[in-house]
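Hey, can you fold this?
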Amino acid sequence: MQRKVLLYDKSGEEHFNLVSALHKSVRSSDPDAALYWLTRMLEAGEDRLYIARRLVRMAIEDIGLADPRALEQCIAVKEAVHFLGIPEGDLALAQAAIYLCVAPKSDAAYRALGAVKDDVEKTIAEPVPMHLRNAPTKSMKEWGYGQGYQHAHNFENAIPDMQCLPPSLAGRQYYFPTDRGIEKRIRERLDEIRKLRGAG
């Protein structure tokens, strides 16, 4: 039987086009398209561990804490692919792609890290506040290391009102959870923490 030659060059543009199509299909919650692009990559001989790495990235970048198990699933799939090889491991990749497609989506952690990096690049690198420093020696204690530290477990709800950011960034918020999946519960908990901290 003659077979259509699949246009694919592992180091060329089509390689990256297919990876992009797979990633954007997962991000768009389209399992049928994701399976199509995944199969195109498999049939063209793409390295299975490369695909597994890309799926891990999708779990972190596009699902995040909306479904923390997505990352666990992808790491398990990476191990299954490594353990089983071809062709059995291909089913694990398909399973991960489907899981990621139907999982609730959030890029809140991705955006939070970007915002923090932006502040780190644009602001001076302030010294760690004294109350956040360890004081393993007598001299450090005398210099004020650790002075004013509030041990969380000594407080009701284990939430002190201590500021942990440098003074110039005090009160800055970076992480804004969505209302999708588990992150909805995280957002409710974070609102509760911020309220308790403000009341302290």
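Oh, and this one too while you're at it.
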Amino acid sequence: MKYFISAGEHSGDLHAASLIQEIRKQDPKAQIWGMGGPLMAAAGAEIMFDPTAESTIGFWEAAKKVWVFRRRLSEFTYFLRENRPDVVVWVDFGGFNRLLAEQAAALSIPVVCLFPPAAWAYGKGRADRLARCVTHVASVLPFEAEYYRRYYNLKVTYVGHPLVDRVRPQLAPEEWRQRHGLAPTEKVILLMPGSRKQEVRNLLPVMLAAAAELAASREDLRFFLPVAPTIDQALVQSLLEQHPGLAVETEPSAENYNLMAAADLGILASGTATLEAALLGLPMIVTYRVSSVSALLYRFLQNKENNQPVMVSLPNLIKGRKIVPELLQDGLTVDDLVMQVRLFLELPERSRQMRKELQGIGEILGPPGVMERVATIVRGEATQHPG
């Protein structure tokens, strides 16, 4: 069978690579092309364009790259027409992948959507367009599946979240702390500004300034900064050099789960990392900042049927209430971040309560074997609609 898989950022590349591995188990002769990054390529896909190092967040930020993706859309549409894959798989990156799905549907090629747009947050507009071009939604969140089933005559399967199969530390927290020479009284604070350059530029300066202020008043804090493979080390070093008196230990992203399991607190960019941290029971402060134009558009597009306060982090969305603090846009200041960290450090009950609140998220996200279930859906649609 022939497959075209499209992902646009690091997390999508990660999940798509895992899916490719499962597809190849079920279909050893699979031919796989697509848009994605080095992980998809390593899994065996022929990558036609890699956008992962330049992915953005926010409406305005994405609009600046519209001409690049318009050209790629034209190229991919021509490829679909000439090569007739048996199925197209949309992995997140909804702004572009919805356009690609519309082209595939016009060519009568089935589309399976993994990580569909957050229509439950933005309202029905996005879901309306998805429903016209997607054959099958593989939903990773229970309330997401419920939303699409309620409003649309779509095939929707709740498969669970792929992270339930992936989030496993390799070292016990005690062993990790021993290897890093940590005293029992020292507190580990994890800084995770995201996997996009834009996120690092927006968030890491605030995180480092807050860390410097905290370190000036306490000697029992150790700061660790895992660096995603999509981030240039020179960018990180240039930001660290602005705080010469601050000791921050950088780590490769392969250490993320060991760090999360052993840390006392995480300061995280909103995104996949917040769910990984939740699965490992890490107390966290979630940060998020895009341009003022994108923030205004987000508030305008937010689903007016949803009367809840704005929440962006996955743990809060899954629980349906604010269990982890969020510092967003103008609310993300050095003073506010320092205050939040001090609350965790000075009130141990706050951390214990959050760990308790985070328990059970793994059960909500479904049983193991997620990508095996997605691969079965993808192959089923390809078999029912052979190219």
